[in-house]
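Listing 4. Sequential folding, example run.
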Amino acid sequence: MLADDSGLEVRALGGRPGVATAYYGGVGLSWAERRAALLEELRRTGAGDRRCRFVCALHFVGDDDRELATFATVQGEVAAEDRGVAGFSFDPIFVYPPAGKTFAELSEGEKNAVSHRAIAVTALVCALETAYKIGA
């Protein structure tokens, strides 16, 4: 069994939305509405600090009850408005500073090379290969 929890943590919002990312702003909102709500809340704080990070935690439990877990983050900043059309969730407002682009402006390959999920999955695959001696 594999479980995944990913979310966005915004420093000026005390780390929110965090584990509640998928429900930020209320039940039934679209991702565009969730992003707008986050941008409005951030604006109301008056904080100039726009630092944030995406987080991914993966937990694997094998048929043999062996457990493996990985955790990865990618640092960014909250954009002032939606930028780009790729991706999903908060990607259009997550600026990846080394590229100067939001995740929604990156190509799929560019995003997959640096995303929190890609890093966590790569680490989990390595842990699985070691634990189960795959490819040895």
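-- end of first protein; second protein begins --
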Amino acid sequence: MAPVLDCVDIEPAPRLDSRQQGPDTIIQRCKAAWENFKNFNRDAVLTAATLALAVVRSHYPSINIQSIGGGFADRLSDAQT
């Protein structure tokens, strides 16, 4: 996998219409790359969690998946959690 900053190129992207290309700074591209990276990470975590719950469900069909999504019991301290 390439580093995130490798996705930021110096050349502006070509436009599909005949309008003039607006200014596109490297800072704007870095911010866009960072947002894309955060979205990718969020999607990867969601996919991994979904897969893990599917595996749990396939091995233990009688388990209540909703209780897993509910979080920790309120009566537990931070140390117990």
